[in-house]
Amino acid sequence: MTGAVVVPIFQTSTFAQEAVGKHKGYEYARTGNPTRTALETCLAALEGGRWGLAFASGMAATDAIAHLLSKGDHVVMTDDVYGGTYRLFTKVFGRLGIGLTAVDMRKPEAARRAMRPRTKLVWIETPSNPMMKVQDIAALSEIAHKGKALAIVDNTFASPYLQNPLKLGADVVLHSTTKYLGGHSDTVGGAVVVSDPQLHEQVRFVQLSVGAVPGPLDCFLVHRGLRTLHLRMAAHAENARAVAEFLKQQPGVSDVRWPGFAGMVCFRHEDATAIASRTKVFSLAESLGGVESLLEVPQAMTHQSVEDSDAAVPADLVRLSCGIEDPADLVADLAQAMGLPVPA
Ligand SMILES: *Cc1c(COP(=O)(O)O)cnc(C)c1O
Question: Which ligand 1 atom is nearest residue 125's CA?
């Protein structure tokens, strides 16, 4: 319309029609908004899918997928799943008659054994949060399809820069765009990407019926974040490598986990909570995937909803989201927080 090189923030709730039913593709902003369309098109392209659907949060996107199920259906889920996902399926959809079995999906055989006649979804999250369990998307998708179930991958930790689940056989990719895709800790959002037309119709129907859609400013912010995704992911990984290598050599630190890509690292230390309160560069906060480094103690902060369940995490676990700062600053910060000499 104007030559603007960036799709503007269309802050409008409705769109004027020329005649009854005659319009430019937009009627009401819950159903669609040009700022959202631009983001959704970009998300689909990044994941190699046909359709992207943006949601108000990662959990709203998860809820939209859960709404594809009916009473009596069953879900097979990775045991180390995002706490909110586990909570939604057990506490909300469980009450509505949806069954769930959580298994360690690093062994595809465990998922195969958990399949039941009414299993409709195989929920994969890889690398998982917070234990960084890496799972075989192709093998698990095959198991899902043999059981006439959909394979869904929460791709929040790897991002489409590192992993495209649809190309590995999955049916649905899900993101919390709050994390790496937005990348700047300034907005909350979610997304679903699919390639099957019927599945698209179903998710789209839930999106507009339930209405958990992001506003135009949030769409704009996520879309702006996407433009630097490749640069940020490379920097996150470089910093995570430096931090993981440092941690592996320190006394009192055990079980350092970094899957070899992306920016998430976790480790165990008996002084987990004290360390978490002493860092200065790493902010003590929930969430992840932003340009600034964050740390948290999952058991006490993000994973309380899974305490004493199949998805429980150790109390002495520290989770790091490595930002894009100078890696030497991150290592020095962890060293001082653990009372260790700062490496030269
Ligand atoms: C944060 C997160 C979610 C939930 O997303 P919100 O945007 O917080 O609703 C889902 N899955 C993973 C892996 C996450 O890290």
Answer: 13
